[in-house]
Design brief:
alpha/beta; 7-stranded mixed beta sheet
Length: about 325
């Protein structure tokens, strides 16, 4: 006898209204887009078609399929062990950033590659630029401190014609710098995005993974299997999310005139007070906190600018009229 089935809504209403992943996965449709996914599909404990979300290869194949089916990315892969992020949550961030930019343009979201975005820590997966370019036509500069990740992102771009000329990947040679050597002289960005390392150490990262596995499997797990992967700099750094974000905020002051809006994902609500204090210390003129949720996971985007309301409007007039497509 099958266990009692949980009721799942037909639509994931917590996700952004424009998010293409609000409906439950239709594996029949997905397999038609990517037949290789079929190998990983099996009936779950409730008798529904699913994949084993604790199998890193299955998770990677699902991501590959989603990117192909929804974003026309026909060639996508990442090296073993690198972060394979959940696509729906990454898409949410991009859509909320689109709303933020649209709020400066009478709620009309700016479309086209004249909108310049900077992705801090793009990883081997290059997912934020892929979604942002596919959904809104924005161009991206992506940075990372890992040479393997940079090479992987560049390979994804080179193997997908739609991304060529739209995304540039730059290696950050100093891991203590976030914007220096990435933002060039006389270069301007409309927005930055970032998913900072969450944990403060490898031990903390493994403990967090065990908690997640225990919650999902509903029995005690003893080994931290990173079903979504993740290398050291992707999952943890000294001081974790809080310290990384405070460093980013402090360094953003030097590039106050180079970017319309800076932003970062903040996963831990207890970090918010220190983030707000750091923003006050550097003199951010405006700060916005945008709530996001996916299933039981609640997070938020914190965005800040050093430009006054009038300066923001001047930026829109001067920069967004330079359309190249």
């Amino acid at each position: 006898m099958l266990p009692k089935k949980k009721e799942h809504p037909a639509e994931k209403l917590q996700l952004h209204a424009r998010n293409k992943h609000r409906a439950r996965y239709d594996f029949n449709i997905l397999v038609r887009s990517c037949p290789a996914l079929k190998t990983f599909i099996a009936k779950n404990a409730y008798g529904d078609a699913s994949i084993d979300f604790f199998n890193p290869e299955a998770v990677k194949m699902l991501n590959r399929t989603l990117l192909q089916h929804y974003y026309n990315i026909n060639n996508w892969d990442i090296p073993a062990g690198y972060l394979c992020p959940p696509i729906p949550g990454r898409a949410d961030y991009i859509h909320y950033i689109a709303d933020l930019l649209g709020s400066l343009n009478n709620t009309t979201i700016p479309i086209g590659n004249h909108i310049k975005c900077l992705d801090i820590g793009t990883g081997a997966n290059c997912v934020y630029p892929i979604i942002g370019n596919s959904e809104y036509g924005w161009s991206f500069t992506s940075s990372d401190i890992d040479t393997v990740a940079v090479a992987s992102a560049q390979k994804i771009i080179s193997e997908n014609p739609s991304l060529q000329g739209q995304i540039e990947v730059r290696l950050q040679t100093n891991p203590n710098d976030i914007f220096k050597n990435i933002i060039q002289k006389d270069e301007f960005f409309d927005v930055t995005v970032c998913n900072p390392p969450f944990h403060s150490s490898e031990t903390a990262a493994k403990a967090g993974t065990l908690r997640k596995l225990n919650n999902l499997k509903q029995h005690k797990a003893t080994k931290a299997v990173l079903n979504f992967g993740g290398k050291q700099h992707e999952l943890w750094c000294s001081g974790g999310e809080e310290q990384f974000t405070e460093n980013m905020i402090r360094q953003s002051k030097e590039y106050a005139a180079s970017c319309l809006w800076f932003s970062t994902l903040i996963s831990k609500s207890s970090n918010l007070n220190d983030v707000y204090k750091a923003l006050k210390k550097v003199g951010a003129s405006e700060v916005k906190t945008i709530p996001m949720a996916q299933g039981n996971k609640v997070s938020r985007v914190v965005a800040w600018t050093f430009l006054s309301t009038q300066e923001q409007q001047n930026w829109v007039t001067a920069q967004w009229n330079k359309k190249t497509n």
